[in-house]
């Protein structure tokens, strides 16, 4: 048995041992607030997590609260009763970008939340059409910045919107 299988077996055994105690404490479902629309990366991650912990923690209900760059859902999490039955997902936008982007926030990103764990890391990538990059002699980010500065309003880009990574 390799170390990875041994670790997985140990985690499963620990969860099984703890599970009856957790279910005895409360049979109420856990509400996992996702501050974005269904179908997006955080929603898919939340649903995978909910399925994975069902045997050890019980039912986890995904509650999508999209809008305002994640602020609506994050505010729901911040104002939830501190009973341990409502948890939520945070993102770069809700806790790092939005406090600088919005002049008034409905929550304090630094004080209204207690972190539990990091679930995923999502890399950001910058891509350019290869033929166009060759034509414009853009081989590095520095080349792209220099071209953009020398040619205002000649480049287009796509993004998830203000505040998105």
Features:
165 residues, mainly alpha, D-Maltodextrin-Binding Protein, domain 2, 2 domains, 6 helices
Description:
About 15% of the residues are buried. It is built from six helices and three strands. A three-stranded parallel sheet has the order 2-1-3. It has about 160 residues and is mainly α. The protein starts with a helix and ends in a 15-residue tail after the last helix. The chain folds into two domains: about 100 residues, Bordetella uptake gene, domain 1 (D-Maltodextrin-Binding Protein, domain 2, 3-Layer(aba) Sandwich), CATH 3.40.190.150; about 40 residues, no CATH class. The protein is elongated, with a radius of gyration of 21 Å.
Layout: helices, strands, pairs:
Blueprint: H1 3-25, E1 30-34, H2 41-57, E2 60-64, H3 71-78, E3 86-88, H4 92-101, H5 130-136, H6 141-150
Parallel strand pairs: 1-2, 1-3
Short account of what is shown:
The chain contains 6 helices and 3 strands. With 165 residues, the chain is mostly helical. The chain is elongated.
Would you identify the regions where 5 or more consecutive residues have pLDDT less than 50? Answer: 1-24
Number of DSSP strands? Answer: 3
- Total helical segments: 6
| Rg value | 21 Å
Calculate the terminal CA-CA distance, rounded to whole Å: 41 Å
- Compute the number of structural domains: 2
- Fraction of residues in H or I helices: 40-55%
Query: What oligomeric arrangement do these chains adopt?
Result: single chain
CATH hierarchy class name of the largest domain: Alpha Beta
**Principal-axis shape:** elongated
Derived from helix and strand composition plus strand pairing, the structural class reads mainly alpha
- The portion of residues forming beta strands comes to 5-15%
The biggest beta sheet is recorded as:
3 strands, parallel
CATH H-level homologous superfamily name of the largest domain? Bordetella uptake gene, domain 1
CATH topology-level fold name of the largest domain: D-Maltodextrin-Binding Protein, domain 2
CATH architecture of the largest domain: 3-Layer(aba) Sandwich
Write the element-wise H/E pattern from the N-terminal end onward. HEHEHEHHH
Mean pLDDT: 85
Order of strands across the widest beta sheet?
Answer: 2-1-3
């Amino acid at each position: 048995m390799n170390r990875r299988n041994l670790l997985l077996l140990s985690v499963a055994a620990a969860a099984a041992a703890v599970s009856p105690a957790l279910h005895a404490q409360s049979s109420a479902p856990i509400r996992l607030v996702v501050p974005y629309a269904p179908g997006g990366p955080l929603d898919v991650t939340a649903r995978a997590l909910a399925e994975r912990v069902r045997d050890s923690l019980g039912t986890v209900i995904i509650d999508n609260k999209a809008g305002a760059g994640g602020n609506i859902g994050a505010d729901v999490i911040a104002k939830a009763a501190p009973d341990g039955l409502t948890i939520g997902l945070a993102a770069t936008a809700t806790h790092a970008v939005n406090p600088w982007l919005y002049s008034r926030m409905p929550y304090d990103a630094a004080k209204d939340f207690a972190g539990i764990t990091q679930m995923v890391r999502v890399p950001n990538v910058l891509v350019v059409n290869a033929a166009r990059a060759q034509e414009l002699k853009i081989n590095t980010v520095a080349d792209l910045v220099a071209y953009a500065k020398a040619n205002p309003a000649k480049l287009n880009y796509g993004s998830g919107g203000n505040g998105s990574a």
